[in-house]
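#lab-general

N.A. 3:47 PM
ok so I finally got the sequence cleaned up, no stray characters, all 216 residues accounted for. can someone with queue access submit it? mine expired

B.Y. 3:52 PM
send it over

N.A. 3:53 PM
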Amino acid sequence: MSVRPQLVPPEGEKKVLLHSCCAPCSGEVMEAMLASGLEYTIFFYNPNIHPLKEYEIRKQENIRFAEKFNIPFIDADYDKDNWFERIKGLENTPERGERCTVCFDMRFERTALYAHENGFKVFTSSLGISRWKDMNQINGAGTRAAQRYPDMQYWTHNWRKGGGSQRMIEISKREQFYQQEYCGCAYSLRDTNQWRIAQGKPVIKLGVKYYSADKE
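B.Y. 4:20 PM
back already:
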C-alpha cells in the first residue's frame, strides 16, 4: 500500500485554495492535503459542465465529500453564458486542444481572483490528477492566472505520482462517487456520444453510473 508523501506547498504556505472539478478527481487531493496538515478551501467554479443536471450532480457529490471532513466549500457562479462566449469559434477543436486551454484559463482566472481577494497566496487544482488531462496544459493555465497578482503562486504538484492515481480510484469506489463519462462540456458530450454511436454503443445516460454501485 502506497504512503502519501508529506506535502509542502510553495514558500511553505499552509493555506491553499483548491480548485475542484469533481469529487472523483478531488478526493485524493483532499485527503492528501489533510494528511499533511494543510488548511484548505474548495473553490468550485466549473461553468463548462453541461447540462445543468450534470453540473448539479457533480457539485453535490463534491459538497457531500467536503462536508465529511468539514472542509469549507465555495460554490462559485455557474456563468455558462460567459463560458460559451469565450469558447466561441473553438467548438470543433479536439480534446486537449485550444478549447481546453481557454476553458482552463477562464476557470483558473476566477480561482486566482478569489484567492487574491481572500488571503490565499497559493492555489492548485484537482484537474491534473486525471490521466485524460495534459498536465503541462493545466499547469500553464494555472501559472498564467497566478501571474496576474503579486505574491500569488500556482502549485504545480503532480497528484498522480506516489500512488495518487490508484488512491483516486480507491477513494471513488469507497465513497461510491458519481462516475461521469465525459469531461464535462457540451462539446465533450457531443464528441463522446458520436464516438459511441460509431462503435455501436449506447449514448451517455446522465446521473446513472456510480463507482461500485451502478444504477440503471
